[in-house]
């Protein structure tokens, strides 16, 4: 089967969408399928064409990292997409900006189109009447819709009559993300908190920095923040102002291959998000056997509960600090991490994700 995937971002970009698409495509290739990805020239120096893990990658210009930039990329990528789908068995639009170029490229062909709805950007645009109408028209172009969380699925189905959206939580490569050796030394054995978040306001890292001195009143804690973004300098300064500059290290963006070892270096992972779909990073932490403390927003409560970690109200440093110190005082903390690993393997492994996608692809292909 030849499968063409369209997405705005793809590795070496780092993020949940990028990881999801890479895992899925790599899994499809491992099953013997031909996979091509149409994506963007999102970083200087990237080649227009290359092969990554057996996936043929084609890149076209991206004017800006904004909704309008995404749609401009989508329009500009239509000729490349049309060439890629010429002999495809199925085409998959990963996120709403990819629907239009895929539909235009497939016009009159009868090739099935699948869409996966991701990210808080979709939720934000769906909350505005004008853009909600346009999103509904886009989603209706697809023959089958997935969503990364129940919240996104419910919003997707509300956009227009006859729209059906299947919840399919993003998958994790449980062979890569698994318990094992840590990448950082234990130091003086303070409790170590890992915050694998890009430094944008929606990810709520500021609230974690504000919670850290409160948590340090009760527990001897330190933190590593894995990710970069426009808020880094301000957050580093804030940590110094709050007197916890010696307790928190901002590691910046790290290659994806380094992430399992970095996560295993911690005792607890923290996701202080203000908005969230279903976090691939949280699932990766759980797959490594790490307990997870997370904001009760978006799709996070669908994967995190008190058996594998705990939830706290978003944007509330005091409540976050209380949650963190409560978990660290729990003698069963490690068992929560073990249960998280078991849950990811049984429900959200990449193998299960690939299985379900192939079921849908084959059903749609048989009905052409």
Write a concise keyword list for the protein shown above:
368 residues, alpha/beta, Rossmann fold, eight-stranded mixed beta sheet, six-stranded parallel beta sheet, 14 strands
Compressed to H and E, one letter per element, the order equals: EHEEEHHEHEHHEHEEHEHEHEHEEHHH
Q: In the CATH hierarchy, what is the superfamily of the largest domain?
A: Glycogen Phosphorylase B
> What strand line-up does the widest sheet have?
3-4-2-1-5-6-7-8
Mean pLDDT: 93
Rg from alpha-carbon coordinates: 21 Å
Oligomeric form of this entry? Answer: single chain
What count of structural domains?
2
Q: What does the overall shape look like?
A: globular
Largest sheet geometry:
8 strands, mixed
Structure explained in plain terms:
Helix 1 crosses helix 14 (350-366), helix 8 crosses helix 12 and helix 11 packs across helix 13 (333-347). The protein is an alpha/beta fold and 368 residues long. It has two domains: 2-171 and 349-366, Glycogen Phosphorylase B (Rossmann fold, 3-Layer(aba) Sandwich), CATH 3.40.50.2000; 191-347, 3-Layer(aba) Sandwich (Rossmann fold). It is 40% helix and 19% strand. It has helices at 16-30, 67-76, 78-84, 99-106, 119-126, 129-139, 150-157, 205-216, 232-241, 259-264, 280-287, 317-328, 333-347, 350-366; strands at residues 2-6, 34-41, 49-52, 55-61, 90-94, 113-117, 144-147, 165-167, 191-195, 221-226, 248-252, 268-271, 292-295, 309-312. The radius of gyration is 21 Å and the shape is globular. Helix 9 (232-241) links the parallel strand 10 (221-226) and strand 11 (248-252). The chain has an eight-stranded mixed β-sheet, with helices on both faces. Strands 11-10-9-12-13-14 form a six-stranded parallel β-sheet, with helices on both faces.
């Amino acid at each position: 089967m030849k499968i063409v995937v369209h997405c705005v971002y793809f590795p070496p970009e780092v993020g949940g969408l990028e990881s999801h698409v890479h895992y899925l495509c790599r899994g499809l290739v491992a099953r013997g399928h031909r996979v091509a990805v149409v994506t963007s020239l999102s970083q200087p120096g990237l080649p227009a064409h290359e092969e990554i893990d057996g996936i043929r990658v084609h890149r076209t210009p991206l004017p800006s990292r904004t909704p309008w930039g995404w749609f401009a990329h989508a329009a500009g990528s239509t000729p490349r997409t049309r060439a890629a789908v010429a002999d495809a068995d199925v085409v998959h639009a990963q996120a709403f900006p990819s629907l239009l170029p895929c539909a235009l490229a497939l016009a009159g062909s009868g090739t099935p189109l699948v869409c996966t709805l991701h990210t808080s950007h979709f939720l934000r645009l769906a909350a505005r009447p004008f853009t909600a109408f346009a999103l509904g028209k886009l989603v209706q172009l697809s023959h089958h819709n997935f969503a990364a969380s129940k919240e996104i699925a419910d919003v997707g189905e509300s956009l227009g009559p006859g729209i059906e959206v299947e919840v399919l939580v993003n998958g994790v490569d449980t062979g890569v993300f698994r318990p094992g050796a840590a990448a950082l030394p234990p130091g003086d054995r303070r409790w170590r908190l890992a915050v694998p978040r890009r430094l944008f306001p929606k990810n709520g890292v500021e609230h974690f920095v504000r919670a850290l001195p409160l948590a340090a009143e009760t527990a001897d804690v330190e933190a590593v923040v894995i990710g970069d973004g426009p808020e880094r300098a301000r957050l580093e300064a804030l940590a110094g102002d709050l007197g916890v500059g010696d307790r928190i290290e901002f590691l910046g963006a790290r290659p994806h291959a380094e992430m399992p070892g970095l996560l295993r270096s911690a005792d607890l992972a923290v996701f202080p998000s203000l908005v969230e779909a279903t976090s691939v990073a949280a699932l990766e932490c759980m797959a490594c056997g790490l307990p997870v403390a997370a904001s009760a927003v978006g799709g996070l409560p669908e994967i995190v509960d008190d058996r594998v970690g705990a939830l706290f109200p978003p944007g509330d440093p005091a409540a976050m600090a209380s949650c963190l110190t409560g978990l660290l005082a729990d003698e069963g903390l490690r068992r929560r991490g073990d249960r998280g690993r078991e849950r990811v393997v049984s429900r959200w492994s990449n193998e299960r994700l690939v299985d379900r996608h192939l079921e849908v692809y084959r059903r749609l292909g048989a009905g052409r």
